[in-house]
Amino acid sequence: MRLSDFVGYGDKLEHLMRSVQAGRIVHALLFAGPHGSGKRTMANLFAQALMCRGQEPRPCGVCPACKRFAAGSHPDVKTIRPEKKTIGVDDIRDLIDYLALKPYEGGRHIAIIEQAEKLTPAAQNALLKTLETPPGDAMFFLISDAPGSLLPTILSRCQTVRFTDLSAEDCAAVLTRRGIPPERARLLAGLAQGSVGRALELDGDNDFAALRERVLKSLEALNGPASVAAAATALEDDKGSEQAVLEIMELWARDRMAVQAGADPYEASDLDRLTRSRLDGRALLMGVMRARAQLASNVSWPNALENMYFHLIDSGDNGRNALSWQR
Ligand SMILES: [Zn+2]
User: Fold this and answer.
1) Percent of the chain with pLDDT over 70
2) CB–CB of 161/26 below 8 Å?
3) Domain coordinates of the chain in residue numbers?
4) What CATH architecture does domain 3-162 belong to?
5) What SS3 class is residue 78?
């Protein structure tokens, strides 16, 4: 993947690359944004581009420097990846000692600090002077999804590259480039609300596929007041996955609405199932909204779910039945 391939951010990073090449050096960059928004991928790609000795566009991916970087063994790049709760003064002293050495390949050092919000105040103070006047051409990449926890003195010495979640469409495009089939990419992008990292987590998550199947089975089991308790019980034990259950239902509702209107659903592989469904998509969507509001005002998950199901099999909205079995 190249900088320009990075949907939504290519321009920003190309610009940074040009300022570095033009000698307008930025010593410290802060990659800030929510979990899964691509900041770590971007920081690494940018570091690799700076280390690359191959042909433009960089990173070329094939030169010895790129290969060493990809293997995590480039001698001039040091990454602090906290495994403990904090990054302490000792970690920063080690880093400063490392930066005092001559770069092995004669270029510059790059120090990458992941989860920079874990730097203790003492560690941040220890880092301050080095951030201001780094040895040689050394560059710092700080990565954080909670930059507000960093000292103002650190923030003022960093140029911030801000990340937000992508639109579902852009997120799906990124996933497709990573080899995920387009239909699945759209589904994952919708569920992850534009977070590429979250979408990739979901993609590798067999539990998630199983949860989705349980949700659809539960909806399909609704066929009258007597069915509500059993259908809801099937999902009540999914502690902590209430939001995921509601997201799955929301996408299903939207697809069902599309099918009811004679349009193509998002998830084309579900077409048969969507056509067979007896749920009214709009009533389900309203139910999901209501359930979210109830959860936010501390209604328990089993209660919110059963309320939604009773609504669905009850009168529906405007006297229309949510389930066609009543028609
Ligand atoms: Zn290269």
Assistant:
1) 91
2) no
3) 3-162, 205-326
4) 3-Layer(aba) Sandwich (3.40)
5) strand
